[in-house]
Specification:
The protein is an alpha+beta fold. 37% of the residues lie in helices and 15% in strands. The strands form 2 sheets. The protein has a 6-stranded antiparallel sheet. It has a two-stranded antiparallel ribbon with strand order 2-7. Strand 5 and strand 6 form a beta hairpin. Helix 4 packs across helix 5. The longest helix has 25 residues.
C-alpha cells in the first residue's frame, strides 16, 4: 500500500511496532484521518509550547533496538497511562472549543484538569462571546465522558529530531513540528472512551 493511501488501524496499539505514544482528542484524530496530517492541537498566543508535540517513549522498543533517547525509559503501561492523561486534557479542550466556536485564551489550563478556579479564569472571555456561568459549567460537565485517543508512532518518527521534554524532561520527549506530521508516521489509533470508539466506527463504515 502506498503512503498516500495508508490508514492506520483503529485498535489497541501494537507495542512491538510503536516507538512513541501521544494522547489527543477525537477532533484532532478525525482531522488526521480527513487530511492525512496531525497538527499541534492548541493554537493560541498564551501557549508556550506552540508547534511542539509531546510524546511518551516506549522504553521496550528503545532497549530492544539499542536506541538512545533523552528520557527515562518507562514501561509500556506507564507510557500508555501518561498518554491517556494527556488525551483526556485535550479531549476536554477540543470539545469546548468545538461548542464555543472559538479557542479561549486560557484553554490550555484545562489540560491539567478543570475545577472552579479554571471556570473563573475562563468565564470573562466566554461572557464576551455570549456565554454565562451556567453555560460554561454545562460545557465543562459535558466533557466528563470524553476520554480522548492514543496515537502510536512507528519507526519513521526516528527520522525527526527528538528532544528532551519540557515539563517532565525525564518522562517525555518532544519534537518541533510547525507543519504537523503525516499519517504515514502513525502505527495505530486507540480510542479510549465509548464516544471516541463510536465516532471512529462510523467513520470506518463510511470510508
Amino acid at each position: 500500500m502506498s503512503e498516500e493511501n495508508y490508514k492506520p488501524p483503529v485498535r489497541a496499539l501494537d507495542e512491538s511496532k510503536t516507538v512513541l505514544v501521544h494522547g489527543t482528542s477525537i477532533e484532532a484524530t478525525v482531522y488526521l484521518l480527513e487530511t492525512g496530517i496531525f497538527e499541534y492541537e492548541i493554537k493560541n498566543k498564551k501557549d508556550r509550547y506552540q508547534d511542539f508535540l509531546f510524546f511518551a517513549p516506549n522504553g521496550r522498543y528503545f532497549k530492544e533496538n539499542n536506541l538512545e533517547v533523552d528520557a527515562d525509559l518507562c514501561t509500556w503501561k506507564e507510557s500508555v497511562f501518561k498518554a491517556e492523561v494527556y488525551a483526556k486534557g485535550l479531549a476536554d479542550v477540543h470539545y469546548i472549543q468545538s461548542k464555543a466556536g472559538f479557542m479561549p485564551e486560557y484553554i490550555s489550563e484545562l489540560c491539567e484538569g478543570w475545577n472552579w478556579e479554571i471556570l473563573k479564569l475562563l468565564l470573562p472571555e466566554f461572557k464576551e462571546h455570549g456565554f454565562n456561568k451556567d453555560d460554561l459549567r454545562k460545557l465543562l460537565k459535558e466533557t466528563i465522558p470524553r476520554k480522548g485517543v492514543i496515537l502510536g508512532f512507528n519507526e519513521k518518527i526516528l527520522e525527526k529530531k527528538i528532544e528532551k521534554g519540557i515539563d517532565e524532561p525525564n518522562k517525555e520527549v518532544c519534537i518541533y513540528l510547525p507543519q504537523g506530521i503525516g499519517i504515514e508516521y502513525i502505527s495505530g489509533i486507540q480510542p479510549i472512551g465509548l464516544i471516541e470508539w463510536d465516532i471512529l466506527r462510523k467513520i470506518k463504515k463510511t470510508a
